[in-house]
TrEMBL record:
Protein name (record): histidine kinase
SMART domains assigned: HAMP, HATPase_c, HisKA
GO cellular component, one term: plasma membrane
EC number assigned by the record: 2.7.13.3
Major location (coarse): membrane
UniProt xrefs under SUPFAM superfamilies: ATPase domain of HSP90 chaperone/DNA topoisomerase II/histidine kinase, HAMP domain-like, Homodimeric domain of signal transducing histidine kinase
Top-level enzyme category: transferase
Domain Histidine kinase: 237-443
Amino acid sequence: MFRPRSIRTRYTMMATALSLVFLTTIGVSVDLTTRYRIEAHAFEETKDVASQWSAAVRNGKVPHTLPTMTRVDLIQIVDANGHVLQASKQAWNRPPISRVRPPADDRFQDLTSCEPGRDCVLLWAIRVTPAEDSPVVYAGLPEPFLLATHWLELGLALIALPILGFVAWATWALVGRTLRPVETIRARMSEITGTDVSLRVPLPPGRDEIAMLARTANQTLDRLEIAVKQQRRFASDASHELRTPIAGLRVALEDAIAHPEDVDAQETLRTALSTTNRLEAIVGDLLVLARLRASDPEPPEPIDLAALAKEASTGPIDTVPVHVSATGDVRVSGSRIQLMRVMDNLLNNARRHADSSVEVTVESENGQAVLSVTDDGAGIAPQDRERVFGRFTRLDEARRRDPGGTGLGLAICREIVEAHGGTLRVEDSPRGARFVLRLRAMADNPRSRSRP
């Protein structure tokens, strides 16, 4: 089945076809109505004339040549044997207009008579009396021009064709004008490549579907550009972070092979093992970040945030103690495994930077579950509070306390929290650093306390 690829062509063909059906229906209706009106008017005229001469025959006052006062000029009075008794001037030199004799029980009949070599005649036949030998009066006129020819249909077709052409042109122009912004959007989208996603599609005026499509396309391109920039920055940072330990490991191993007598083999192996552990930690954190962005979210489950914090706070005896205090029953919905990883990362980070203790508080505030982790260490300068969540970002204090760190722990925490619809920030604290996690609390919490 033929189907044009162009929407413009399809809509033009569809509109033209529908218009053709509509105009054909209207044309047929006008044609039939016009023909009926002309025919009915002609029969009405012939009936009046035939009735007049039928009455004259009954009264015995009929001249030899019948006069004509209207356009009905074919008048004949024919006896029972088919002989013309009287006729109008135009009907004397022709045989009876019709061979049809109305029966006695149906004396009035309208007829259309078409004889070979002559024009068709619309006539009215009246049997003068029911008697067997009653004459018949025929009054007729030549079939009107519009009924005898197809000029009426031709005229209607000539009227319909320009209308049909106008509909096709108007549809083609309107659909083309409507789709012009789509073509502009398509052309601009074809210019966008993976190396340059800064281009945006032009926004047409108004708030119709095409304008909404353009806005949605630009919003998608905005997100794509952000994702591409993050990917490039991530690849750059990852390659930098991986290059340094790999280069150090290579130098140490090459030096051990080139100068075995000057190198402590055990120390070289311990250094290589330490570097390998750091590489393993970096690769592991990178895989976690990749899974967070690529995998489908796990089915949520209700989680008691205070119980989760207490579970994560248990650790070796020689580590900095963690004190957990909770106000009420604070529950959230999410992935227990992922939120436990957030808790572990925050507590391990706090232990590394604390001088003597870590405080964890869990409470409900304005419909949100709020968990804060506070250490009594040196704290984080205000200008660095957002930087610490960047990938591979490690402040000087972090490098001093944890030389083997990857700089991805807090970035992973924020990724997980944002995937749960929450926030993770560093906020003011009278001592040390205070990380505050906010998630939407479950609606069935028995108590909720608001703070100013």
